[in-house]
Write a structure and sequence with these properties.
heterodimer, A: 306 residues, 0% strand, B: alpha/beta, Rossmann fold, 2 domains, six-stranded parallel sheet, six-stranded mixed sheet, 14 strands
Chain lengths: 306, 359
């Protein structure tokens, strides 16, 4: 065992990278669920975002355009879900699962000619003085912009849900769509916008994997992160800061356990491998001991005539 | 139960009837990853395409990709058998018990399970001696490392993976006595993000050669980003990362075997067999050693490939001790395939490796 081989600064820096796709997808899904819609298609949206972002950034050689395309791709695909559930009144669970299958297939088709292609590199934010600070510099000030965007987005969603009037309306729709409707709010419009926001976030999360974290395109490369994002929203009791905590815990412990393995620490590998799941669930379940439940109208179909 | 049995036999009969009428042989493939993984499943699918190319209209192939190992696999294999497949290839170690279970219910369907060890009257097993390729990798890796630290991304603690680690280690050690192996168990065959994270963790801890026994090209991309790290293609050539970081590769070539077995089913000569071929028979190929490797190392590696191919050298030749120091192979003795300490069931590290095998 040689713990000194682990460089804590590099470790923290890479755990932030590992957590970001999960955070982005989960924050998007949180907003969707707070509006009363259960979208199980996160995985499909992420993988579609991953290939949209990858393809566009390869074609234009601009990672930024790629990220925008990923958000757009995710949002457009989520419109399909919005149409099925909000206008055709289809079952949300079934539609979400179908969206995941569709997204996986669609992305594989779109990605045919991009296997083995190298994407243009995303420039890291280089803040002249801040990045040079020992220890703090590499941890806080020398990442790609998307990572900061994820944290800023968490803060923005918190503010939106807690402090803004629009957030209040969104929560009202999620708690009781009949009451919100009676007050004159357009339930369908609120939900469609929330679904599109969720789609854009998931798409961005997917593109973060294909453009920055790995970076390459491989079929099925999100490998279940969308499902973990879904679970994370529940365990975080639909609260933005807890989603951030959960994502960093999960990503962090995952990176930590890989590092511990590489350093040859004498903890059985099985325990290390399951630790991210166990610890994240444990921490968030303990924190959700207060009475914060799911949005009351979650997963229920709304139609003005009913 | 009776009803299901009735339906099952009816469906089988129907399937056989249509097969007989159309006079095509149906061949099914079950894959553990997506066909575009660029590694393991990609090569199996190339084998499937070779079957189609060889027999044209006389054969109909189907495949299901990204099938989890375990109960889901059993459902998928059953489904294939019900749809009238004559021959089914299940291409991952974890499909072993599901394949055996389904095979019992469909005695007329032939099954071929890759990398396992359980045979039955209608189940053949086949695998490739990847450890011969690992020996060549270890040889090159031992020469190439400057930090004397080699990272190894392993998937699951099964004999095939453990053989690979041992083979790479003893051959790296032979040319570089100071070499150390850091092993990460990813517990997945295919998860590009996790494979990339594992590669980064190894690189951050000073490894400058990364060997992988997972299926995606993500570790190659991570090594490329790091700049000065050597990798090897796994299961497929991964030539898009050549000449550097990818300096060589192990290529699985399943096509000849798949074509031969399909032919046997067509001729009615199919028998349950156990096939385990290596470099000599062409089932394991060594991808081109790039110019990033010094010429003398390349030459000695090619010599080893030739010796492994003609059988004059065995990758596990004594004297070799197990990790606990007890003797395994005496001077000049070569490892047996089967038996107590045989290669097929290898579940121990060799002397010098410091990690423990998860159990």
């Amino acid at each position: 065992m040689d713990l000194s081989a682990i460089n804590p600064v590099l470790l923290i820096a890479s755990l932030m990278v590992a957590a970001t796709p999960l955070l982005l997808a989960a924050i998007g899904e949180l907003v969707v669920e707070r509006s009363g819609v259960l979208n199980l298609g996160v995985e499909g949206l992420m993988i579609t975002g991953a290939i949209c972002g990858f393809a566009i950034s390869v074609e234009t050689t601009s990672p930024m355009l790629g990220l925008l395309a990923a958000m757009l791709g995710g949002a457009v695909l989520s419109l399909l879900f919005a149409f099925l559930t909000q206008f055709a009144l289809a079952n949300q669970v079934a539609s979400g699962l179908a969206l995941t299958l569709f997204g996986l297939g669609l992305s594989a088709l779109m990605g045919r000619s991009y296997v083995g292609v190298k994407p243009p590199a995303m420039a890291k934010l280089d803040l002249p003085i801040l990045s040079d600070i020992p220890v703090l510099g590499p941890i806080f000030f020398s990442h790609d912009p998307v990572l900061y965007f994820g944290i800023a987005l968490t803060a923005a969603v918190y503010w939106f849900l807690k402090k803004s009037r629009a957030g209040l309306i969104l929560r009202a729709v999620g708690e009781s769509h009949d009451a919100a409707h009676a007050l004159g709010y357009n339930v369908i419009r609120v939900r469609v916008l929330a679904i599109m926001f969720g789609g854009a976030c998931a798409g961005l999360g997917g593109a973060y994997i294909s453009l920055i974290r790995v970076p390459q395109w491989t079929e099925g490369m999100t490998a279940g992160i969308g499902w973990i994002a879904l679970a994370l929203v529940v365990f975080a009791s639909w609260k933005p800061w807890r989603v951030l905590l959960g994502a960093y815990l999960f990503g962090g412990i995952n990176v930590l356990q890989l590092n511990l393995q590489a350093a040859g620490i004498a903890i059985p590998v099985e325990y290390l491998a399951m630790s991210p799941y166990l610890i994240t669930i444990l921490v968030l379940v303990i924190m959700s001991a207060d009475k914060s439940g799911a949005p009351a109208a979650l997963g229920r179909t709304f139609h003005a005539s009913q | 139960m009776k009803l299901t049995k009735l339906f099952t036999s009816a469906a089988v009969a129907l399937g056989l009837a249509t097969t007989a009428m159309a006079d095509t042989t149906k061949v099914g493939f079950v894959y553990v990853g997506p066909v575009g993984d660029g590694g393991w499943t990609y090569e199996h699918d190339k084998g499937r395409q070779a079957v189609e190319a060889a027999f044209g209209d006389k054969v109909e192939t189907t495949f299901v990709e990204s099938v989890p190992e375990g109960a889901d696999a059993e459902r998928v294999i059953t489904q294939m058998a019900l749809q009238g497949a004559d021959l089914i290839f299940t291409t991952s170690f974890g499909y072993m018990d599901p394949t055996i279970n389904v095979a019992k219910k469909f005695p007329n369907v032939k099954f071929e399970h890759a990398t396992g060890y359980k045979q039955a009257d209608n189940v053949s097993v086949y695998s490739a001696r990847f450890y011969e390729g690992r020996a060549v990798q270890g040889h090159i890796a031992g020469h190439m490392t400057k930090t004397n630290k080699i990272g190894y991304i392993a998937s699951f603690p099964i004999p095939e993976v453990i053989r690979g680690i041992n083979s790479a280690y003893i051959h790296a050690k032979k040319v570089n006595p100071d070499v150390e192996f850091s092993i990460i168990w990813a517990y997945t065959w295919f998860d590009p993000a996790k494979e990339a994270d594992a590669a980064k963790a190894l690189i951050e801890q000073g490894a400058d050669v990364i060997l992988q026994h997972t299926d995606s090209t993500a570790p190659q991309a991570a090594a490329q980003a790091a700049g000065n790290v050597v990798t090897f293609g796994q299961a497929s050539d991964m030539g898009e990362y050549a000449p550097f970081p990818r300096v060589s590769s192990i290529i699985d070539d399943w096509a000849p075997y798949y074509v031969a077995r399909t032919q046997a089913v067509m001729d009615g000569t199919w028998e349950s067999v156990s096939t385990w071929d290596g470099i000599g028979a062409g089932m394991v190929g060594i991808g081109e050693i790039s110019d990033a490797v010094p010429a003398d190392v390349k030459a000695s590696a090619m010599e080893m490939v030739a010796a492994l191919a003609d059988g004059s050298y065995h990758a596990f030749t004594g004297p070799l001790n197990k990790q606990d120091g007890s003797a395994w192979l005496a001077e000049g003795e070569t490892a047996p395939d089967f038996g107590d300490d045989g290669l097929a069931g290898m579940n121990f590290y060799l002397e010098g490796l410091t990690a423990q095998i998860p159990n």
